[in-house]
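Before the break, one more example. Copy the sequence into your notebook; we will annotate it together after we see the structure.
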Amino acid sequence: MSVKHTVLAAAVPTVTRQAPDTLIEKVGVVLGIAAWAGTAAGVAGILITGAMMAVSMRRGESSEHMSRLGMVLVGSALVAAAGPLITFMF
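Here is what the structure looks like once it is written out:
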């Protein structure tokens, strides 16, 4: 006994995702503020690490400031790359 399957052809609706304009504007403002805050935090981190290096050199102390500076620079690079990376993905 053979069973025949029939495929019904139906129009597949096209779905477009569109957020409301007010939401897009508000999210843009929040992301802009977050980007500026991240940049300011990176600059402050570099300045603070540099000041700590200068003070420890003046006192004759050795410290691991280069690793701190490296962490600050990596964090700043992540903040700087976040926007373009998300834009690329979506």
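The mean pLDDT is 81. Helices lie at 21-59, 65-89. Try to locate both features in your own notes.
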